[in-house]
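Local shape tokens:
==================
===
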Amino acid sequence: MRRALPLVVALVAAAPAAEEAGRIMRPAPRSIYPPGEVDIAATAPAGKLELDGRPVAAAQPFPDVWHAKVKPGAGLHTLALSWEGGRQEVQFFVGSAGGPAAPAGYLPFRPHPPGADTECTQCHELSPRGRFRFKTGACFDCHQSEGFAKVHTHEPAQLAECGMCHNPHGSTAKAHLRYPKETACKQCHD
């Protein structure tokens, strides 16, 4: 019995790492989209996407990165990303005035970047080792760094990545915040 316990502990400890291997960046969970095209962005090793249980054909612009555009009908939808050892799902709603009502707690999706024809390479690149990464300082290719200090308590150079607090792929929150300001500050400060 004692020999089995370390194995169980090891399996439980390994579970979070498998979950972190894949992530749906867009659509945001519990978001509302107008009728029309919904942009999907996800990352997972050898990932596979399904919308409402049906496979989604996705382009692979970078290693382990998946991008697709779908046009689901009105109503509630489930997008699933699966990979060896993990799975993630998000639900989103498509609708308009006069159609079915969105479930309680769902909020309108705010895309970022707002341009529909923005390419991944505007913000991302491959490292010398072939890994997909965010370009250093890419936020300031579009956003003015002079106004940054008026809104934030840190200078731009102090923050390694805007993505620590903001969702660069869009969200349902004001300013694309990942969590409330009090929580954001605690990511680096006690």
Helices lie at 4-20, 148-151, 181-185. Residues 1-19 have pLDDT under 50 and may be disordered.
